[in-house]
Write a structure and sequence with these properties.
- With 382 residues, this protein is of the alpha/beta class.
- Among the domains are: 32 residues, no CATH class; 165 residues, Bacterial extracellular solute-binding protein, family 7 (D-Maltodextrin-Binding Protein, domain 2), CATH 3.40.190.170.
- 51% of the residues lie in helices and 13% in strands.
- The strands form 2 sheets. It has a 6-stranded mixed sheet with strand order 7-6-8-5-9-11.
- Helix 7 links the parallel strand 6 and strand 7.
- The chain is globular, with a radius of gyration of 21 Å.
- The N and C termini lie far apart (51 Å).
- Bound molecules: calcium ion (CA).
């Protein structure tokens, strides 16, 4: 039975390509989980015919490329994997609740799940920021290593437990861009008085260097930049930024995204709602989130460079690299802030220690693997 299913799944893979490979792999995993459950005398509740209708509130405009579509993808995968026993209706920001109300809405059960980025909740849980993006922190590959196999997820669960939520990684943007500026940044002095939309710890770095951090959900940034309410903004990278049209309001596009080197997007699930599902549906929610996590990174990786070409060649965007001394200051202040964050409470210290230890290990290993390879490829191919 298992072999036959596997064969059929691989036939589908050949027919429909990569997306199916993902679904097929997840199918095999689920079959394995279900058969293990049977061997132990049941307990996975796969026979339950009960169906569930969930709502997902998101911090993104509805269907927004990359992020909103990532949330849609998660809902679709859950529905397909469950054979329709668990359906998830996705709401864009403002449709059911405002972008930044999503966390509370799921916490109190207005919706069963949400889709966002953990640094949006820093006002409620400062330690949450470590699970989205840390300036000079982990890349996408490293974040996944830390979350899934480095103790990160367990720490994240402890932070969200106080809010009646279960967090899961559900997407990653890869390295972001440094942002859109109406004037050039040639030295630290150019940051003085600069009003920039930038979330999380990166925003705190800007504050300490004389700038002003502004928090705005995605849907409100363009108007603020065009009106001059803000002087600069970061969002994600070329694929997303092109869709928002920031090039119409600011000409200078800076790299690298020192403040968000591999931002993890999240889904947060109401604890009781998750516990009320039969165990096979709970597994589906978890595995679908892993699949969505990988798919979003693949989406960004496939589309960013095309979008960058369009920005440069069709919209005359000026690409700029942050000067070294500016990056050095960003790094110095980041380390100062991270140390302070670690002193907030015991759990923050534990998260900081775990994160910094993982970063050191990743840094050492990647010096002779990812970094060495990318340099070798760049320097030796004609
Ligand atoms: Ca960003």
């Amino acid at each position: 039975m298992f072999m036959k299913n596997t064969k059929n799944l691989y036939r589908l893979v050949i027919k429909y390509g990569q997306k199916c490979l993902l679904l097929a792999t997840m199918g095999i995993l689920l079959l394995a989980l279900i058969s293990c459950g049977d061997n132990k005398g049941g307990g996975y509740g796969s026979a339950s015919g009960e169906s569930f209708e969930w709502k997902m509130v998101t911090t993104w405009p509805k269907d927004f490329p990359g992020l909103g579509t990532g949330a849609n993808n998660l809902a679709e995968v859950i529905e397909k994997m469950s054979g329709g026993r668990l359906t998830v209706k996705v709401y864009g920001a403002g449709e059911l609740v405002g972008a930044f109300e999503s966390f509370d809405a799921v916490s109190r059960g207005t919706a069963e799940m949400g889709h966002g980025a953990a640094y949006y909740w820093k006002g409620k849980a400062p330690a949450a920021q470590f699970f989205a993006a840390v300036p000079f922190g982990l890349t996408a590959q490293e974040m996944n290593g830390w979350i899934y196999h480095g103790g990160g997820l367990e720490l994240w669960e402890r932070v969200y437990n106080d809010f009646n939520l279960v967090p899961l990684a559900a997407g990653n943007t890869g390295v972001q861009m440094g942002g859109w500026f109406t004037k050039e940044i040639k030295s630290i002095a150019d940051l003085k008085g600069l009003k920039m939309r930038i979330p999380g710890l990166g925003g705190e770095v800007l504050n300490r260097l004389g700038g002003e951090q502004i928090s705005l959900p995605g849907g409100e940034i363009f108007a603020a930049l065009e009106l001059g309410t803000i002087d600069a903004t970061e969002w994600v990278g070329p694929y997303n930024d092109l869709a928002f049209g920031f090039y119409k309001a600011a000409k200078f596009y800076y790299y690298p995204g020192w403040h968000e080197p591999g931002t993890t997007l999240e889904t947060f699930v109401n604890k009781e709602a998750l516990a009320a599902l039969p165990e096979d549906l709970q597994s589906i929610v978890r595995i679908a989130a892993q699949a969505a996590n990988m798919d979003m990174l693949a989406d960004f990786t496939a589309r960013n460079n095309q979008a960058l070409n369009t920005l440069i060649n069709e919209h005359n965007v000026q690409l700029r690299r942050f000067p070294n001394d500016v990056l050095k200051e960003f790094a110095r202040v980041t380390e100062e802030i991270l140390k302070e964050e670690s002193l907030r409470d015991e759990l923050s210290k534990e998260i900081y220690d775990s994160f910094i230890t993982f970063r050191k290990q990743a840094d050492t290993w990647h010096e002779i693997s990812e970094l060495a390879y990318l340099n070798a490829r760049k320097n030796n191919l004609k």
